[in-house]
């Protein structure tokens, strides 16, 4: 389990109860979480705006990744500092029936960004981010 206090210190961030709580909970979760999911787990009375701000800060510092969830919500997942094997970008699966979002770390991502940046192809896109989300029914719903 990552040490939230050490992580904040290494990132040069002040330690606050919301920051340590958000890191603890995100790091423990096997799947991306919405702001509502996270806020529910924090002490009662925690301000949603503070949670949003905290998540933005973590994304800026490279400690969390933001991705599109269902219904225009954002989901967040933790990136372990100094553990590149956890840091690799992976596909996600959204179940359109129950709304569950799962990480698919073993699915190989298409090489489209590399093709777009291929000088020989005459294309010159600068790809900075790749996001792949598959939709359908999860094993529980099929
Ligand atoms: Zn499902
Ligand atoms: Zn994920």
Can you give a write-up of this model?
With 142 residues, the chain is α+β, with helices and mostly antiparallel strands. The protein has two domains: 1-84, Winged helix-like DNA-binding domain superfamily/Winged helix DNA-binding domain (Arc Repressor Mutant, subunit A, Orthogonal Bundle); 88-142, 2-Layer Sandwich (Dna Ligase, domain 1). The chain has six helices and six strands; from the N terminus they run H-H-E-H-H-E-E-H-E-E-H-E. The chain has helices at residues 4-10, 17-28, 35-41, 48-60, 84-87, 112-116, and strands spanning 33-34, 64-68, 74-78, 91-95, 101-104, 133-136. The model has no long low-confidence stretch (mean pLDDT 86). The site of one zinc ion has 5 residues, from loops.
Write out the strand line-up for the largest beta sheet, numbering strands in chain order. Answer: 1-3-2
CATH topology of the largest domain: Arc Repressor Mutant, subunit A
Structural class, please?
alpha+beta
Query: CATH superfamily of the largest domain, called what?
Result: Winged helix-like DNA-binding domain superfamily/Winged helix DNA-binding domain
Instruction: Give the name of the CATH architecture of the largest domain.
Output: Orthogonal Bundle
Shape: globular
Bound molecules: zinc ion
- What's the Cα radius of gyration? 17 Å
CATH class assignment of the largest domain: Mainly Alpha
Number of helices, where a helix is a run of at least 4 consecutive DSSP H or I residues: 6
């Amino acid at each position: 389990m990552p040490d939230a206090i050490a992580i904040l210190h290494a990132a040069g961030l002040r330690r606050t109860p919301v920051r340590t709580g958000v890191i603890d909970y995100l790091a423990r979760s096997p799947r991306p979480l919405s702001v509502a999911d996270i806020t529910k787990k924090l002490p009662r009375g925690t301000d949603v705006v503070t949670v949003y701000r905290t998540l933005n800060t973590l994304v800026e510092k490279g400690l969390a990744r933001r991705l599109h969830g269902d219904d225009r919500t954002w989901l967040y997942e933790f990136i372990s500092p100094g553990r590149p094997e956890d840091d690799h970008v992976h596909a996600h699966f959204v179940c359109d029936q129950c709304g569950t979002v799962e990480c698919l770390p073993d699915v190989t991502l298409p090489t489209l960004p590399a093709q777009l940046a291929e000088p020989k192809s005459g294309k010159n896109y600068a790809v900075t981010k790749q996001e792949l989300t598959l939709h359908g029914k999860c094993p529980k719903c099929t």
